Amino acid sequence: MAIRIFKCTACGHRMRLASNYCGSCFNEKPGWQKPGSLIAMAAIPAIVVVGFFAFIMLAVPTG
Ligand SMILES: [Zn+2]
């Protein structure tokens, strides 16, 4: 199953999330829509959440 969120700016084709190019006209995606950027955007909140819980664990006195 392919997830198609972004429309091609050139032809309006719904592009595959995991591709760097439009599947219809092969126009290059905007940089932030590329898979690497999306992985980075997904990873940043995860790192923030993990960091927050690590901080809570260290800040709360135990025992
Ligand atoms: Zn296109």
Features:
63 residues; mainly alpha; 1 helix; 0% strand; binds zinc ion
Describe the fold and architecture.
The protein is an all-alpha fold and 63 residues long. The chain contains one helix and no strands. The structure holds zinc ion.
- Percentage of residues in helical conformation: 25-40%
Largest sheet: none
In percent, how much strand structure appears in the residues?
under 5%
The structure class reads mainly alpha
Number of domains: 1
> Using DSSP, what is the number of strands?
0
Distance between the termini: 49 Å
Query: What hetero molecules are in the model?
Result: zinc ion
Task: Summarize the SSE layout with pairings.
Layout: H1 35-59
In short:
By secondary structure, this protein is mainly α. The chain has one helix and no strands. It is rod-shaped, with a radius of gyration of 18 Å.
